[in-house]
Give the backbone structure.
Amino acid sequence: MTVLNIAMAGSDELAREIAKPVDERDVQSYVHKEVVDGVQCVLSLIRPMRYPEKLRPLLSALSAGRVGIIEVKAIDATFGETLVAFSAAGITKGILVVNPDTGGWVDEDQVKKLLVQAGLDKWIFCTGDGLKIRQTLLAMMSELEEEFAKDTARPLVIPVDQHFNVKGIGLVAIGYVQSGVVKVHDTLAMIPTGGSGEVKSLQVMDDDVKEARAGDRVGIALRNCSESHLVGGAVIVHPGVEDRKSGKSVPMAVELHRVSKVDLQISPFQRRRLEVGDVIHASIDLQFVVGRIETIDDGLVVKWETPLLIRRDTSPPVVITQLDSSLRIMGPATLHRCE
């Protein structure tokens, strides 16, 4: 089974044209399953609730999404921020659906110019026809096969966005497999809490499976794990390996940042400039961590209020935001840990 996660900024009506609703939290999930050339393909839409009022649900959708859908109702500040957010998250493949409200009008040429300015010039315009959109998404899935294989071969990273106890099963953690593979009986580490546990069973799309891989939204039943180890946005990884006899040393997939040097690429639409003492937020792998700028003279240095976990191997962009700015997305960043 191949899964394509799609971050969507648009209406429930359009989402239902494409897939069936299955789950509602800070984000609404929709799923469409289709067999293509004998392979079960799954289109998984992730649509933020309460956006634009709340920014974090959009950032959560972007953390899990590999491609995007934006429904354009009007060319306004919300549309501009949405373009900047998708660009900052590195979502270079996507679909634009121009669908103004009754009596409204959207200039497609202006939309195209804004896409180019935002760095999303490879996005495709589609009508609101669900079948056509699904066909376009399945074509994108095929184009991303090599990237999916690379993600699966990388170390395991699963940010936990839900956890609860189930009668007869025990503690269950739920999250998107951002990279790697998790298997039944694997020993897992919970970062930054320092907990550990063993995989008792796995579920993907309500089916029991022996393994889950990059792209899957997985439920992990855990043995010998405390619920306290999953509180506050834990990230699940495989433990590091230190074998003195063989000299083998394999670190955990993420490193913990308390203070970072931030190489920030300011959005072309952003007019605000950051200053010492400013409060910002970093979004990556479903984390949303507040930090304060300590210096800017020799580069932007930020101290984080709680530890920020950054992948050692091919980290996605960190989206830097400032919630009191008129354009809340500052831009994408690469972080370097300050010892």
Notes: The radius of gyration is 20 Å.
